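quick one before i forget lol
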Amino acid sequence: MDWFARKKAGDVWDEVVEGPLGDIEAAGRIRGICDAAASSATGAARNDKRDSERYERAAKVAMEIAMKISDGLMRDDAVRHIVDLCMTANDLKTAQILFRAIHTSWIRETVLRDHSTLVQ
């Protein structure tokens, strides 16, 4: 009986985006992806295979969207959210690479204040 079967809710990062996103919409989508993937990042830090896969998919989609943001300040803020997600998952290598992509000084200082281990 398929009548009562619930459809599995998809992940935010797997949703199809119709048309190009503007910078504001892209930054908001990245923020939503990072918020939704926070629990998976926590599971990835505990070496949970399923959560690790979900975290990696979410981070990949967020990075792809961030590359398309043309405004430097908005892009840096979006990358900051992705760095926070990576640090939650104990993915220091990816976080360090993304940290180097942040050019706005006050955002860099904020990230360093929150994650001092990035400067190793």
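fyi Residues 49-67 form the longest helix (19 residues).
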